Amino acid sequence: MSFNFIKTNINGVYIIEPKIFKDERGYFFESYNEAEFIKNGITNRFIQDNQSKSSYGVIRGLHCQLGQYSQAKLVRVLQGKVLDVAVDIRRNSPTFGKHVAVELSDENMRQLFIPRDFLHGFSVLSDTAVFAYKVDNFYNKESEFGIRYDDPQIGIDWKVPLNKVLTSEKDRIAKGLKDVPYNGR
After folding, report:
1. Per the domain annotation, does 89 fall within a domain?
2. What pLDDT is stored for residue 80 in this prediction?
3. What pLDDT shows up at residue 183?
4. 139 Cβ partners below 8 Å, 6+ apart?
5. What order do you get walking across the sheet with 3-7 strand by strand?
6. What is the C-alpha to C-alpha distance for residues 66 and 3, in angstroms, rounded to an integer?
7. Which residue positions in the chain have pLDDT lower than 50?
8. 3-state DSSP call for residue 167?
């Protein structure tokens, strides 16, 4: 087995630790293996990879796509360290509005699997971070939805002092948890 799949306190969200082979030359690991993911209940077919680079204090999120364009994500950090967050916005879920937060870094090489119908965001805890993720659906601008990173109903501690937070205008004016539309799930 090349991975350790760790269940979180929210159904469907997994922390994934790869088996790392290290020696004097460096290291090797599988970052994705479809058969092992399927064996552990993750059957999403990933169709696109995305990557971003950000500096310390940047908070990207909380974002998702709604309806038929909803996306599952498999996220990881290639360089640096982030606090990665998934928020359950499934109205019928007993964990609606709850979140999972986990540190992902180039040192721990952990990944986070985020199912469809979850908001996603991260804060950069190192000087810079290169963030990569797979998605199982294509981007559709009209399906975009976001909630403010500092929504008090969710109460995320982003591990960045308020005077150091850098975020986009879109993220500063995003809606609140109360504005999540009912999606039947």
Report:
1. yes
2. 98
3. 64
4. 48, 65, 69, 71
5. 3-7, 14-18, 111-114, 73-79, 128-135, 48-55
6. 30
7. 184
8. coil
Long-range contacts of 14-19 (CB under 8 A, 24+ apart): 14/40, 14/42, 14/112, 14/113, 15/102, 15/110, 15/111, 15/112, 16/74, 16/110, 16/111, 16/112, 16/113, 17/108, 17/109, 17/110, 17/111, 18/109, 18/111
CATH number for the domain spanning 140: value is: 2.60.120.10
With respect to residue 40, please indicate whether it lies within any of the assigned structural domains. no
Looking at 27, 63, 120, 139, which residue is catalytic?
A: 63
Tens digit of each residue's pLDDT (9 = 90 or more) over 1-24: 789 999 999 999 999 999 999 999
The two three-digit tokens of residue 34, written as one number = 């479809």
Full residue range of the structural domain in which residue 165 is found: 45-179
Question: Phi, psi at residue 109, to the nearest 5°?
Answer: 55, 20
Query: Is 185 among the domain residues?
Result: no
At residue 181, the pLDDT reads 84
Catalytically annotated residue among 99, 120, 133, 149: 133
Active site residue 99: no
What is the rounded distance in angstroms from the CA atom of residue 103 to the CA atom of residue 96? 22
The three-point CA angle 85-88-91 to 5° equals 160
* pLDDT score recorded for residue 154: 96
Is the residue at 17 inside a domain?
Answer: no
